[in-house]
Design goal:
Blueprint lengths: L1 E3 L11 E3 L28 H30 L12 E6 L5 H8 L3 E8 L16 E5 L15 E6 L22 H19 E12 L11 H17 E7 L10 E9 L1 H6 L8
Parallel strand pairs: 3-4, 3-6, 4-5, 6-7
Antiparallel strand pairs: 1-2, 7-9, 8-9
Helix pairs in contact: 1-2
Length: 282
């Protein structure tokens, strides 16, 4: 990933991002090595080595994509200058691996402290590529994590972008976390659990950022009736608790997919508590 302007992983902001494939089937990850050559000089890669190389490459691409998406979102929101306290901000990144979102926020000079939660690698979670003295990582299954067990303090920005993993979407192709009845149930359950944890830690005036997807095959499709009802209820709740709810669609990443990001700003903490806290989510 290369950046034009201030959106590089070493700076703040987000301008025009140009995505380039840095590794293809015709390239090798070690300079001076022939295609298909192992580091010991023998020819051919083992299936395990090829799989590990593929996972490392996909992790790096995902890291850079997350960094770039948040750079775009910050640029679209005026870098949140009117919303972030003058004394700086703390953030909570739920489902933080591999760490692109957290890395971008830590690069912001206004960032005081960051907290991240990710699925342990033994359960199929992806590695976190963030090493910073201001970043505190908690390894846990979000489905099983209670609010009293969450190490994060009160935060000003909360990101909810955890994926519901399965065997084909996990670090070693062996997901060992909590399973739901179906993929759709898992996606919704995980999103609502993130909201519960995040809103309980979000300070008054805070910002909630999450990824969402919308497909509309028509009013007569019975498979999506429940999805639409849940979506309408969810966004009604968010618009009641936040002053502004705005969608942000990346021009460069996942542009052809139906997913997009939502930025909810100026959290009404007192109203949230009067409504019974996170109870309406259930």
């Amino acid at each position: 990933l290369k950046s034009k302007g201030r959106g590089s992983p070493r700076g703040r902001g987000g301008c025009s991002w140009v995505v380039e494939r840095v590794l293809s089937s015709q390239e090798t990850s070690t300079p001076g090595m022939a295609v298909g050559q192992k580091q010991d000089g023998s020819s051919g890669w083992s299936a395990q080595a090829a799989s590990e190389a593929s996972r490392e490459y996909e992790t790096e691409v995902h890291f850079q994509k997350c960094y770039g998406v948040l750079a775009e979102l910050f640029e679209a929101q005026g870098h949140l200058d009117a919303l972030i306290p003058r004394g700086g901000f703390r953030f909570l990144d739920l489902g933080c691996a591999p760490g692109g979102f957290s890395s971008y926020l830590l690069d912001d000079h206004r960032c005081l402290t960051g907290f991240g939660v990710t699925l342990p690698s033994l359960s199929g979670g992806f590695p976190v590529r963030v090493r910073n003295e201001r970043f505190f990582l908690q390894q846990a299954d979000l489905f099983e994590l209670g609010i009293t067990e969450l190490i994060a303090a009160e935060v000003h920005i909360c990101i909810c972008d955890a994926q519901y993993l399965r065997n084909n979407i996990s670090w070693d192709d062996q997901y060992r976390g909590v399973r739901c009845r179906s993929k759709q149930h898992g996606v919704w359950a995980l999103l609502l659990k993130q909201f519960w944890l995040g809103l309980m830690k979000l300070a008054a005036g805070g910002i909630l950022i999450f990824r969402f997807g919308w497909r509309d095959p028509g009013p007569d499709d019975p498979a999506t009736v429940w999805y639409k009802k849940c979506t309408l209820r969810l966004f009604c709740l968010l618009m009641d608790l936040f002053e502004q709810v705005r969608d942000v669609k990346s021009d460069y990443f996942n542009a052809l997919q139906s997913s997009f990001y939502v930025c909810c700003s100026n959290f009404n903490r007192s109203r949230f508590e009067r409504r019974g806290g996170a109870q309406p989510l259930w």
